[in-house]
């Protein structure tokens, strides 16, 4: 006997998720079997809704259930500062900080010659359009501290600076609470390079 | 900004699954966002179907999409031997072995005084009914090798043996491919106790 079809199908769906192998998929499926019916229906409904109700903000490219997104619509935010990130999850991380009150621009990727991702493949033209049409004074490039993130940051800086707009990059250095002993060489180098007077 | 509502809801649903914390739930949710729409719809449909289409076999208690289940309906199986397991996943494990051709009985639990689970809380009365109505010669008790599994096995043995039915228990000992050096004391004790002549 194989698994009954409804079980096999759910195991198959769970297996498609990252980090979930066949055994975990089976465990989750049998857990679902024991779960309260309302919770399961809600789960199924959420899966359908997330594909149906979400879209990308036509201004900043952030994922949203209303267009323009709630940040672009928020009149209290400072529209002269645009923070550029790789994806929507980075916007959420920044918002969790509760300290930034400018607006965002989501690239949906980074430049990567290795993977064949060029400037036309990510959301750069829309950023340029915003810089031309809106009164923007500073662009904070908050791409990840990876080789691709750095390359994207350099590219944006060369593209935007000539227009007289200030371009800044997030500081690199030791993470708060981290131990110098365990920091990698590049991080230590950046921490020394970016040292500040006390 | 919090997560848009459709995202927050799906993260919440994923978080209810065992072994999935807030961070993993968010990661899975964003993965779903990028997934092909058909796969997501299929996932949602599987969740709904699994609750709607599955039931418990009225003979053996195994989870099934047809009642009686395919094993109980299978005329080629030996109905004189009943293998008693704790849950449906154990039936599937046994079936993967492709060597057992008797039938099953699923208890849906084990006796556990600690958790207040007594004989009336698990599927024992139906087993007794089967033993009275069908021509059963042997009951193989395949509860887990835990304290509760052992206690359940003892209970069943005392209950069934007086009716003149043979009651056996799965062998305990070293797992195939395992290392004596790393075996725990109880397993080694069982392995010596159950030793066989070569």
Distance between the termini of chain A: 72 Å
Task: Return the CATH architecture of the largest domain in chain A.
Answer: 3-Layer(aba) Sandwich
Instruction: Kindly report the CATH topology of the largest domain in chain A.
Output: Dna Topoisomerase Vi A Subunit, Chain: A, domain 2
Helix content of chain A: 40-55%
Reading off the top of the CATH hierarchy, the class of the largest domain in chain A is best stated as Alpha Beta
Oligomeric form of this entry? homodimer
- Our estimate of the beta-strand percent of chain A is 5-15%
Number of strands of chain A: 6
Q: What is the average of the pLDDT values of chain A? A: 91
The secondary structure category of chain A is alpha/beta
Q: Which strands sit side by side, in order, in the main sheet of chain A?
A: 4-3-5-6
Query: What number of structural domains do the residues of chain A give?
Result: 2
Which spans of chain A have pLDDT < 50 for at least 5 consecutive residues?
none
Give a quick account of the main beta sheet of chain A: strands, pairing sense, barrel closure.
4 strands, parallel
Largest interface: A-B, 53 and 53 residues
SSE sequence of chain A, one letter per element: HHHEEHEHEHEHEH
């Amino acid at each position: 006997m194989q698994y009954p079809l409804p079980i096999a199908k759910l195991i198959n769906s769970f297996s498609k998720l990252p980090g979930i192998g066949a055994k975990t998929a089976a465990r989750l499926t049998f857990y679902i079997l024991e779960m309260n019916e309302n919770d399961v229906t809600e789960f199924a409904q959420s899966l359908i809704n997330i594909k149906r109700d979400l879209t990308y903000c036509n201004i900043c490219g952030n994922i949203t259930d209303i267009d323009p997104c709630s940040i672009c619509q928020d009149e209290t935010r400072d529209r002269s500062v645009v923070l550029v990130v790789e994806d929507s999850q980075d916007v959420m991380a920044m918002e969790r900080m509760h300290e930034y009150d400018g607006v965002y621009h989501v690239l949906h990727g980074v430049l990567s010659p290795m993977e064949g991702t060029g400037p036309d493949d990510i959301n750069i033209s829309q950023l340029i359009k915003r810089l031309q049409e809106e009164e923007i004074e500073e662009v904070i490039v908050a791409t990840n501290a990876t080789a691709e993130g750095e390359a994207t940051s350099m590219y944006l800086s060369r593209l935007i600076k000539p227009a007289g707009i200030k371009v800044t990059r997030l500081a690199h250095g030791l993470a708060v609470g981290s131990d110098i002993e365990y920091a990698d060489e590049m991080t230590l180098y950046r921490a020394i390079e970016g040292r500040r007077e006390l």
